[in-house]
Amino acid sequence: MENQGKKSFWSVKTGVIAMLLAPLFALSPFIVAWPLARVFCGPDANEGNCGFAALPWLMILTLPAGALLFIVGLVVLIVSLAKKKD
Q1: Are the CB atoms for 19 and 70 separated by under 8 Å?
Q2: CB 3.0-4.6 Å disulfide test: which of 5, 9, 57, 58 passes with 29?
Q3: Positive/negative CA dihedral, 62, 68, 72, 73
Q4: What's the confidence (pLDDT) of residue 23?
Q5: Are 80 and 11 spatial neighbours (Cβ–Cβ below 8 Å)?
Q6: SS3 of residue 75 by DSSP
Q7: From CA 48, how far away is CA 52, in angstroms rounded?
Q8: Which among 60, 55, 66 is positioned nearest to 29, based on CA atoms?
Q9: In the structure, what pLDDT confidence band is assigned to residue 1 with cuts at 50, 70 and 90?
Q10: What is the dihedral of CA 60, 64, 67, 69, to 10 degrees?
Q11: Inter-residue contact 43 to 17 (CB < 8 Å)
């Protein structure tokens, strides 16, 4: 009863939100940069003079971070469900 007013990081809601946001974060270069690159790159553009060349490099950064966010969300979800069971 004493922990009733405290907010905890270990909640089912936190785990689910992290797991839902992980794919959006991991694929954010394609979600954000793809439409912008299509607007600013002409039909004669190639990988050297267009924004599409940056997408693989951005994916090197965001894909592992998104996978880590998904794993952390899964761990938080499992721990919170185990605490609720007790």
Answers
A1: yes
A2: 58
A3: positive
A4: 92
A5: yes
A6: helix
A7: 9
A8: 55
A9: very low
A10: -110
A11: no
